[in-house]
Amino acid sequence: MSEMSEPSLSDDIIPSPELAAGTQNVKKMQSSSAKTRVTHPSGRAGHGHGIQVLRIIAFASYFTFCIIVIAITQFIGVPLYFINRDWYYAYMAMTKRSFSLALTLMTQIFGPTTIRISGDESVAGQILPGDGGVLELRFPERMVMIANHQIYTDWIYLWWIGYANKPGMHGHIYIILKESLKYIPLIGTGMMFYGFIFMSRKMATDRPRLSHRLNKLKKKKIDPRGNTYFDPMWLLLFPEGTNLSTNGRKKSSQWAVKNDIKDPEHVMLPRSTGTYFCLTELKDSVEYVYDCTVAYEGIARGKYGEEIFGLASTYFEGRPPKSVNFYWRRFKIADIPLHDQKAFDLWLRDQWYKKDALMEEYLNQGRFPPSAGAKIKYVETEVRTRYPWEILQIFSVVGLCGLLWHNFRKLWQLVALKSGFSA
Predict the structure, then answer these.
(1) What are phi and psi of 126, to 5 degrees?
(2) Which residue ranges make up each domain of the chain?
(3) Are 192 and 177 in contact (CB under 8 A)?
(4) How many Cβ atoms from other residues are within 10 Å of residue 334's Cβ?
(5) Is residue 229 classed as helix, strand or coil in its secondary structure?
(6) CA distance 383 to 110
(7) What is the rounded end-to-end Cα distance, in angstroms, of the chain?
(8) Are 86 and 139 in contact (CB under 8 A)?
(9) Phi/psi at 222 (nearest 5 deg)?
């Protein structure tokens, strides 16, 4: 689940110095390597090579075990699809919450980081400090979330945002992904059970597939009293299409020159086609679009997060980002120009220019602007679960089935034993 992209329906380190040969060469290389380690924004590696190996083993064991248990849980629930579809989707939402808990505890243990959040006046009163220092958000149960894409793990922190929301939305988040990701063993199958949307970036294939999935997400339900409602849904889109990198930055600049438009410095130009399609399909069932601008502490101007905060740095070396910073804005879908795609393209690009200005302020000040109209200007917390025992939820279904099977076997052996005595 490393790289996720918005559906594009239209097509949609420091360099090593040159050193002399011999002993002097070795000394300079050692010196250069030491400087590289020191200048990492999170400081020196928190663990030596031996501890890193142990952390890799522990990380892999924990993550693999959780994935296997969640996969078994999902397959146990498959028969519900043929019995009652609402039960089935509620069950799979439960397994999605389990995966979110596994990611949260994984980050809490192996890659702890501070989350700092603020927003403009449109989200006033919705970003609050919760009990025990845990973040409490009051975002709606249905929304489309758009964000700039800095590094591959953006989605982990944004999924945790769903966990921090009240009510919790980590079981109702939907992400649009590259089609190739569904072939990852266990994880890919799990994402299909989650209802994630896989795109091939081929117009003929993607349009009907995306329309089918979005129709499911906007299907009206009827409660026992006869009232209509929609299921909870957070749809996460990355309009840039991929995470910020040297190659992505180059393509964005080329596109800007080709179309004679301004190229932002800190983000890439967004692709509007897929986002436009999603919003036009969902506009009658969703009231708001929530925009998140993401910045990681320590990424210098002109550098890219993927070069600094990779999997090894974040989870194995003990050098995760010191802070992940979010700035939120909210837009009413009724105020977004969805009547015309060209008008929407201009609107989305303008929001990305504003996002670029926010990133510039972050680089200059070390923080995004404080929350407008709030007593607490920044809510700071950590990626963590509310209670240490929450992770046990992951094993509840498999544990219950194991207990039932154990008791059934005991009962069967007892019956067989009594039958033998009778004979």
Answers:
(1) -105, -5
(2) 49-409
(3) no
(4) 9
(5) strand
(6) 11
(7) 59
(8) no
(9) -125, 125
Q: Using an 8 Å Cβ cutoff, are 295 and 150 in contact?
A: yes
Contacts for 102 with CB less than 8 Å, ≥ 6 apart: 63, 66, 67, 70, 391, 394
Structure tokens at 322: 């010191």
Locate 110 and state its tokens: 């192996």
Cis, bond preceding 337 (omega within 30 deg of 0): no
CA-closest candidate to residue 113, choices 276, 326, 301: 326
Beta-strand pair 114-119/233-237: unpaired
- What CA–CA distance (Å, rounded) separates 312 from 37? 13
Which residue is associated with the tokens 């970003």? 127
Residue 315: count other Cβ atoms within 10 Å of its Cβ: 21
pLDDT tens profile 19-64: 233 334 334 334 433 444 447 887 777 677 888 899 999 999 999 9
Contact between 289 and 330 under an 8 Å Cβ cutoff? The reply is: yes
As a whole number of angstroms, the distance between CA 96 and CA 188 comes to 13
Please give the backbone phi and psi of residue 193, each rounded to the nearest 5 degrees, phi first: -60, -35
Whose tokens are 């099977």? That residue is 405
Contact 291, 12 (CB under 8 A): no
| Bridge partners of residue 178, in order along the sequence | 199
- Categorize the per-residue pLDDT at 130 as very low, low, confident or very high, splitting at 50, 70 and 90: confident
CB of 262 within 8 A of CB of 246? no
132 band by pLDDT with thresholds 50, 70 and 90? confident
From the list 46, 236, 73, 266, the residue with the least C-alpha distance to 156 is 236
Which run of H or E residues covers position 237?
Answer: strand 233-237
Q: With beta carbons less than 8 A apart as the criterion, state whether 374 and 138 touch.
A: no
Please say whether the beta carbons of 386 and 168 come within 8 A: no
